[in-house]
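Continuing the series of single-chain predictions for the mutant panel. This is the parent chain; the variants come on the following pages.
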Amino acid sequence: MLHILYIIAITAEAMTAALSAGRRDMDWVGVCIIAWVTALGGGTVRNVLFGHYPMSWVEHPEYLIITAAAALLAAFIASVMTKLKKLFLYLDALGLVVFTIIGCQVAQQIHLPYLIVLFSGMITGCAGGVLRDVLCNEIPLLFRKEIYASAAIVTGAVYIGVEHFQGSEMLATGLAAIVGLALRLLSIKYEWQMPKFVYRDEWH
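Parent structure:
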């Protein structure tokens, strides 16, 4: 089930990434690259940091085909996607939760400490979006006021907590997904925000 949700998530992420590329007037190659970076970048950054190989898209090159096809499809149906914005916000939230749980699982498999497992989940969930925004010359969503990284941290914490108290992996995955998804969707619905640090004075 988690693998099916992963495929859905990378497809949705690739499609929304294509729109970001389109807003920057990128060509078809640029659209595909932004889609790959967004959908697969989080896991790639995680694996590079932890020296965990092979990359998922090297082991499963079909992921590159799926995400590129989704991005090109999005470019052709961009006007339709605009009308489905809310659906893709929900799919993005699903992707955040799924990527976070997978990131935690990978870190556990290589026997990393709990804090690093939590960090691995957050990186996997958020890094792809950060790379997309940087390449598209935008302030990353992670660094703005929306509850995004926080939702990834909560998802990872629930997953680790349930497993720590001898819960099954299925229970840990299910509860983490429910809590993380609920937090992210509620934050979208009610416009919950993280506190901002605002500083305007010059030092020179």
